[in-house]
Design brief:
Helix content is 76%, strand content 0%. It contains 20 helices and no strands. It starts with 18 loop residues before the first helix and ends with a helix. It has 451 residues and is mainly α. The longest helix is centred in the middle third of the chain and has 29 residues, at 243-271. It has 2 domains: 8-231, Up-down Bundle (Growth Hormone, Chain: A); 233-451, MFS general substrate transporter like domains (Growth Hormone, Chain: A).
Length: 451
Amino acid sequence: MIVVTGGPKEPGSQGRPQAGMTVMVISLFFVWGFVTVLNDPLIAKLKGLFSLNYAEAMLTQFAFFLGYFLFSVPAGLVLGRLGYVRTIVVGLMVMAFGCLMFVPAAMAGTFLGFLGALFIVAAGITILQVAANPYMAMLGSSATSSSRLTLAQAFNSLGTFLAPFVGAMFLLQRGVAAPTGASAAALRSARVAEALFLLKPFLAIAAILSVMALIFWLRRRAPAPSAGSAGVGLRFGHLFSNKRLMFGVLSIFLYVGAEVSIGSGLTNYLMQKSVLGAQSAQLGLNASDLLSKLFHQPLKFNAAQVAGAMVSLYWGMAMVGRFVGSAVLAKVTPGKVLILHALAAAGLAIVSSQSAGVAAAATVLLIGFANSVMFPTIFTLALDGLGEDTSSGSSLLCMAIVGGAVVPVAFGALADVGGLAFALLLPAICYLCIAVYGWFACRQTAAAIAP
């Protein structure tokens, strides 16, 4: 995602805040949060479906987050040409097309087909983010822009909280065991039959996205700020010597990579016998019995669904932490807050990797709370003092989200060698590096204000 500077206002854009359009744009934040985190239960399913090792399964996130890196600047150019509302329509339709591509992927029964579909979905999300973030800030007076963006981010967090639960119910309803077949043809047929059960949520999402695109298209002539010459004139070369910014770029890379790695491996981690294997199976039986009595019809939840649903707690902790963190950041230096949260995340990851049972599960889920304020805090610290180079610096930081493509693959490779508990040491190292950045930022701030 790149930051787009607003150009001159189009006629009529100075009027009253468009409450209806504001609500519509907020819905976009929910949608891309939901679709992004739906990858977590999907990874667990694809790993079993195609008999993948962990490194191969993490290629799912590689394909997804690579889209952020490749499409950020092109999306900015599209925004400069089409304007906010039409660009949003393009983003929604690209996402819908990507969801529909799950159909040929399932019918072909190939992992590569699913990767291609996810790559297209990620392209659509990138286009949406490039347009929706600045548009949200401009839908009303500048005095209330932070409030609107905070509200939108809250709905984004709500989407990330709900996605694992919904994904577990639909994507993991047949468990995560690998299909079997007496021959290559029989195995392929079994995989296709199993893959077809993944389609319902993605077809539903495609339909919802298409309706949203139609609604935005009908509002395409609504007064809106000009996107100006988005994506043009970004200057990067001289910024590479800015230590504060480049350390921040590395920190964003490591943070997104660590957060995505943990979320992606969490379903399989919780299902392990050494963590919640037996408990998740029993919880599934208890939930099945309770809901069957409540709805007067037989319902059955397996261990994979229970573990997948618990991933919602990881993202829910992040949602709660953002509200708490916003209050703390008003009183405590951002660098110190970053150090505290990064050290807490590293400590929790290490403790979980060396623990078992409920302790291992609780500590890894609590990392979500520690993650909560890291991204915006790193972002703010890295851009401090850039002045007219803020837009270019922001672009570099957003492109560093590609860490979500690279680090999970390394996490998966470590898991293949020593198990998921061992692999948690990689996110721990990432968090320790981020803590060092917090210390570095504190030192720079102290030096700047020293007499």
